[in-house]
Design a protein that fits this description.
By secondary structure, the chain is α+β, with helices and mostly antiparallel strands. Helix content is 16%, strand content 44%.
C-alpha cells in the first residue's frame, strides 16, 4: 500500500510539473513581442537633423556612437514602416526609448523624451544599447545592439 501511495504521489507531482512547464512555455502575455514592422531607423542630431547612424542590414552603419564623459548627447530618431515615417513625440502615439543590453550597466544613463533620448556619459568605456519603439505603453520594436563609447575627448554637439 505504501508503494501505491508513492506512485500516486510521483504521478501527481509529475502532472503538476508538466502543467507548470507548459504554462511557462505558452503563458506569454505578448508584452515583449514586436508588433510594429520597422523598415528603417535613423538616429539623428535633433538640432540639425543630421544622421548620426542608421540601421543597415542587421547592424548599424556607424559604430560606436560617441558620448561625452559627464555630458549629455541628445539623439533624435526617424522611424519608418511600410507606410512611411511614423510620428514620434510626447503628443504622438509612438515614442522612442533605449536600454542597456547588459542589465545593470551604468556606463551610459538613458533619458527618454518622446521623439529623442538623451545619452549621459557616466563612466569612460564601451557598452551596447538597444533602441526601442513604443506605441503608448505597449512595446512595438527594438533595434539590433548599438555600440556606444563614452569618451573624455568628445568633439561634437552636447546638450
Amino acid at each position: 500500500m505504501a508503494t501505491e501511495r508513492t506512485r500516486r504521489a510521483v504521478l501527481a507531482a509529475s502532472g503538476s510539473l508538466a502543467t507548470l512547464g507548459l504554462a511557462g512555455c505558452f503563458g506569454d502575455d505578448g508584452d515583449d513581442e514586436e508588433y510594429v514592422a520597422v523598415e528603417a531607423l535613423t538616429l539623428t542630431d535633433p538640432e540639425t537633423g543630421e544622421s548620426l547612424t542608421a540601421i543597415e542590414g542587421d547592424g548599424w552603419e556607424v559604430e560606436p556612437l560617441l558620448v561625452p564623459l559627464e555630458g549629455r548627447l541628445p539623439v533624435g530618431a526617424r522611424v519608418e514602416d511600410a507606410d512611411g515615417e511614423l510620428p514620434l513625440g510626447e503628443d504622438e502615439s509612438y515614442h522612442v526609448g533605449a536600454v542597456a543590453v547588459e542589465e545593470g550597466d551604468e556606463t551610459v544613463a538613458i533619458e527618454p523624451d518622446g521623439d529623442r533620448v538623451g545619452l549621459v556619459g557616466r563612466s569612460a568605456g564601451k557598452t551596447e544599447i538597444t533602441v526601442e519603439l513604443w506605441d503608448g505603453d505597449r512595446f512595438g520594436w527594438d533595434s539590433p545592439p548599438l555600440e556606444v563609447e563614452v569618451v573624455d575627448d568628445f568633439e561634437g554637439p552636447v546638450a
